[in-house]
Amino acid sequence: MTRAAITGLGTAAGHNVVTNHDLAKTLDTSDEWIVERTGIHERRIGGSCLELGAQAARTALKEAEIDATDLDLIICSTCTPDQVFPAVSNRIQNELGATCGAFDLNAACSGFTYGVSLAQSQITAGMKRVLVVGVDTLSRFTDWDDRTTAILFGDGAGAVVMEPASSEDRGVLSTYMGSEGRFADLLTCDFSDLFIRMDGKEVFRQAVRVMVAASQRVLADAGLKAAEVDAVVPHQANFRIIESAMKRLGIPLEKAATVLDTTGNTSSASIPLAMDSAVSKGSIRDGDLVLLVGFGAGMSVAAALLRWGK
Ligand code: COA
Fold first, then answer.
1. Is residue 41 annotated as a catalytic residue, yes or no?
2. Which of 121, 154, 192, 273 would suit a FRET pair with 15, their CA atoms being 20 to 30 Å apart?
3. What is the pLDDT of residue 256?
4. Which atom number of ligand 1 is nearest to the Cα of residue 238?
5. Structure pTM?
6. Which tens digits make up the pLDDT trace of 37-80?
């Protein structure tokens, strides 16, 4: 099987910083409460999916040293598209000057990892260069009068170029895409008001469970153990969710990449944003065993295990 490797990575953050103190001016909440219950200090808000997604994609293409016209496919993961249609990916394709096929996928906050899994299968099938963009602008669907949700979300984008790994021991080792539709009502954004509604406590409980199960599954599929993982890049929803999942997996918390203190939950963008930060800090290096694991509305869940490097 040809393995796909990440050869370029780029990100973009929402335009404006909104701190917990800013939110406490209009909501019955406090910086202390938000930090203690979520780990979030501030989030970035503003920008369209096209703008943020294209910015992240340009950086990823530059890092991969390829032109947009070299791409075979663009997959854009988003649950907050700028329009019902056309897909954000079509507009990103045009903005970049690419000529390949393009489509959006919606697996909520698991979408980026679903995209990595699909890119891997397309590369196994013969494609050479696939761009996966994760972008969401949840601020547009946030009820800013609801303190139980307004504190959590932000806007952002991340993108990776995936190509066949140049060495046999690099690239994606195993992937998992899951769905537990019986929990679909726990987190919704309905056409009736277009606001995010959520049973936070139950989402928390189920999130930890599905993250652990998906992670264990990709490790088992690759014949590897949790102790061998060098870095975990989890979905950035709540620091306490990450803490609980890491504990249950038996992986030290220091191995988890986190950016949610400054980004909030950016849905599809959260894993590439955390990955980019970990790479910049040197916590993900060539040859490292890296576990991506996301969960979200659906309830969707996805994991990917990869050996970092081209
Ligand atoms: N500021 C102050 N108080 C708040 C508050 C806020 N922003 N939000 C809720 N509260 C209050 C509640 O009203 C409740 O008050 P009560 O005890 O008088 O009824 C109390 O704080 C505890 O609320 P609870 O919902 O039990 O808090 P929690 O510890 O579960 O934290 C979340 C709430 C939303 C932060 C947490 O459940 C969570 O992060 N869940 C997962 C959400 C998620 O990840 N969603 C996206 C998935 S992709």
1. no
2. 192
3. 98
4. 39
5. 0.98
6. 999 999 999 999 999 999 999 999 999 999 999 999 999 999 99
Q: Which of 76, 79, 189, 235 is catalytic?
A: 235
Contact 107, 114 (CB under 8 A): yes
Q: Residue 131 region, left (φ>0) first, then alpha (ψ -120 to 50), else beta? A: beta
Q: How do 231-234 and 289-296 pair as beta strands?
A: parallel
Cβ contact 123:162 at 8 Å? yes
What is the pLDDT, as a whole number, of residue 30?
Answer: 98
Could you please report the per-residue DSSP string of 15-62?
SEEEEHHHHHTTSS--HHHHHHHH---EEEE---HHHHHHHHHHHHHH
Check residue 1 and give its pLDDT.
Answer: 81
Q: Ligand 1 site: residues with CB under 6 angstroms?
A: 29, 33-34, 37-38, 109, 147-148, 151, 187, 198, 200-201, 203-204, 207, 237-238, 265, 296
Cβ-based neighbour number of residue 193 at 10 Å: 10
User: Which residue stretches of the chain have pLDDT < 70?
Assistant: none
Question: Which residue puts its alpha carbon closest to atom 29 of ligand 1?
Answer: 37
* pLDDT for res 235: 98
CATH superfamily of 171-307: Thiolase/Chalcone synthase (3.40.47.10)
Homologous superfamily of the 4-164 domain (CATH): Thiolase/Chalcone synthase (3.40.47.10)
Q: What is the pLDDT of residue 168?
A: 87
Burial of residue 216 (number of CB atoms within 10 Å: 0-12, 13-18, 19+): middle
Query: In angstroms, what is the span from residue 148 Cα to ligand 1's centroid?
Result: 5
| Tokens at 31, concatenated | 């910086």
For this structure, is 79 an active site residue? no
Structure confidence at residue 170 (pLDDT): 96
How far does the centroid of ligand 1 lie from the alpha carbon of residue 203, in Å?
Answer: 11
And the tokens for 86?
Answer: 């056309």
Candidates 20, 109, 189, 238; catalytic one: 109
